[in-house]
UniProtKB/TrEMBL annotation:
Protein name: Rieske domain-containing protein
UniProt cross-references to InterPro entries, sorted A to Z: Rieske_2Fe-2S (IPR017941), Rieske_2Fe-2S_sf (IPR036922)
Pfam families: Rieske (PF00355)
Phylogenetic classification of the source organism: Bacteria, Pseudomonadati, Pseudomonadota, Betaproteobacteria, Burkholderiales
Key words of the record: 2Fe-2S, Iron, Iron-sulfur, Metal-binding
Segments crossing the lipid bilayer: none
Annotated GO MF terms: 2 iron, 2 sulfur cluster binding; metal ion binding
Matching PROSITE patterns: RIESKE (PS51296)
Length: 126
């Protein structure tokens, strides 16, 4: 991986706020792996980002179809492979086979009032 590829993977623009409606979730592939590796949830105006990997079986994608990370009511993140449910704001497992575990968070940054960026390495450098 070249330095420019590494830099692109360390921080990446995801979308604008209006592209992610409140109460929704959307997946992204910031490192261009060919599948969504992180997802972002917007709830009550707050954003949370997580790695798309169930702690019950690390590496297992959680959505059953594109951008389907939430339960039908939009109140929890769901691993559709294992049935685990997670708190949107903390990523903690609240129901299922991985109680006591949590999703891996990613650092999000909103720039220019509307642009959602992700940082996959430290420290954040906009």
């Amino acid at each position: 991986m070249s330095n420019s590829d590494q830099l692109a993977c360390e921080r990446a623009w995801l979308c604008n706020l209006h592209d992610l409606p409140d109460g929704g979730a959307r997946g992204f592939d910031p490192c261009e792996t060919g599948r969504d590796t992180i997802f972002v949830v917007r709830r009550n105006g707050e954003l949370r980002g997580y790695v798309d990997s169930c702690p019950h079986h690390p590496g297992a994608p959680m959505a059953w179809r594109k951008d389907a990370w939430l339960n039908a009511r939009g109140t929890h993140i769901v691993c559709h492979g294992h049935g685990a449910q997670f708190d949107i704001l903390t990523g903690a497992c609240v129901l299922g086979p991985c109680l006591g575990q949590a999703l891996t968070p990613v650092v999000l940054h909103v720039a220019s009032g509307d642009e959602i960026w992700v940082r996959l390495s430290s420290p954040w450098e906009p």
